[in-house]
Each structure stands twice: as structure tokens, then as C-alpha cells.
Amino acid sequence: MLDTPVIVQTTTQLTAIIPIKVARSEMQKVMGPGINEVIAAVKAQGIGPTGPWFTHHLRITAEEFDFEICVPVSAPVTPVGRVKQGQWPAMKVARAIYSGPYEGLGAAWAELGAWITANGFSPATDLWERYISGPESNADAATYRTELNRELLD
């Protein structure tokens, strides 16, 4: 289920990121280790996480995901392993909260995209998902909450 979308102006946020380009079939194998790696790095440096982790999807095709696993931090990260310093820019976004299992995210994104178009906005090509609650909080996938964000170009 997708909540009613809203338009939000975000603020600049320092992040720690791991860039990943992977075949769709490998996504589930790389996500968990990547999250653990970036969170361990920011905890070891005492700079975060300062909020929920998120993924920035640069390009999604039928064969491949090109994305970044991101964690908000309180100070610049010292690069370690695959973890790099990042900065999430301020932007105007269409935002909606999706409640339910991750398998429903595709349909939720389609619904948000239709809302964006119906309301006269032009979305950027990339998108980001902030994982508010998931398997780490409850085994019941119906309780998962994912914040969907799409930058608006006008």
C-alpha cells in the first residue's frame, strides 16, 4: 500500500556510500553484506548512522542494478574498503511511504510515477529508497515501511 505522495524539499546530508553495479540475479546476495560493511565503517569512525540507510538507484535495467548503498553520517567519512565519502544534495522530491513486502516495490514505484506525471511534474531518472523498517525490526513483511523518493526537475 502506498500512502498519498507529498512534495518535500530536502536538505544536504553527508553520507557514507558503497557504489555497486550488479546483475539483478545477484542483488539479494550483495545487499546485506554491503549494508553491514557501510554501517560497520561509520560506527567504527563514530559518525553514524544518523538515520535510516537508503539506496540511490542510478540506473535499473532488465539485467542490472547500478546503485549506491548510503548511510547518513554526522561528519565526513574516512574511506575504508569499498566505503567512500558522499554528500546527498538538497532537492525537491515527490515522496511516499510504501507499506508491505519488498516484492511490491515495483508496483509502488509505478504508482508514484503515475502520480508525479498526473500532477504535472517531470521526474529525474534516478530514484532513492529509504528503509524505515524491514526484516531487522519485524519478521512480518506486511509491516515493512519504505520511503520512496523521486527528484522533481520542475
Automatic annotation (TrEMBL):
Sections of the chain in a coiled coil: none
Protein name: AraC family transcriptional regulator
One Pfam family it belongs to: GyrI-like
InterPro entries: AraC_E-bd (IPR010499), GyrI-like (IPR029442), Reg_factor_effector_dom_sf (IPR011256)
Gene3D superfamilies documented for this protein: Regulatory factor, effector binding domain
Domain AraC effector-binding: 3-153
